[in-house]
Amino acid sequence: MKVHHIGYAVNELESAAEKFHRLGYSPSGTPVDDAIRGVRIQFFEDRCGVKVELVAPLKESSPVSGWLKKNGNSPYHICYESLDIERDIAAMQEQGFMLLERPAPAPAMGQRRVAFLYSRPTGLLEFVENVHGPLDSGPERNGSLL
Predict the structure, then answer these.
(1) How far apart are alpha carbons 17 and 15 in whole angstroms?
(2) Which of 76, 103, 108, 118 could disulfide-link 41, Cβ–Cβ 3.0 to 4.6 Å?
(3) How many Å apart are CA 37 and CA 25, to the nearest integer?
(4) What residues have CB less than 8 Å from 83, skipping those under 6 apart?
(5) Each residue of 109-137: pLDDT tens digit?
(6) Do residues 38 and 62 lie in contact, with contact meaning Cβ atoms separated by under 8 Å?
């Protein structure tokens, strides 16, 4: 499986962005509001190509708000690229993962569909649909996640 990014839940995007910049991450794009999910998102990348997605709540009812109340600013999820998101979701459900959000377009991902799954042993996972091959430059990969 190819990791696309690591999601970090943050209370306030600007101050977290400053700290990640000091850790060697540079912004890749500008912040994007996802009104449906109630979050503001900004991606950062280091010199090795590791991507971090900062996820801040836009409203109290945002799913990330509850996480932040319990855990504070912290890692939130791992996102994997998927060439067949429906098949990968079914395979994960067979392994006991619970589907939290069916595939739906995500503004921060260029309107590619994303889905969220959860299991107690692994926590929250995100899949991003990848219909045109690897989302990032690099070696070509074939097949699906599983």
Answers:
(1) 5
(2) 108
(3) 25
(4) 130, 131, 141, 143, 144, 145
(5) 999 999 999 999 999 999 999 866 555 43
(6) yes
Phi, psi at 55, each rounded to 5°? -125, 115
Q: CA 122 to CA 75: how far, in whole Å?
A: 12
- DSSP state, 131? S
Q: In Å, how far are 24, 68, 72, 137, 140 from 116, measured between CA atoms?
A: 28, 17, 20, 24, 25
- The whole-model pTM stands at 0.87
Q: 129 has which bridge partners?
A: 82
Contact (Cβ atoms closer than 8 angstroms) between residue 93 and residue 100: no
Please report where in the chains the tokens 């998927």 appear, as a residue. Answer: 82
DSSP code of residue 83: S
Measured distance CA(86)–CA(64) in Å, rounded:
24
Under a CB-based contact definition with an 8 Å cutoff, are residues 88 and 82 in contact?
yes
Both tokens assigned to 118? 């959860």
Length reported for the chain: 146
Q: pLDDT class for 45, splitting at 50, 70, 90?
A: very high
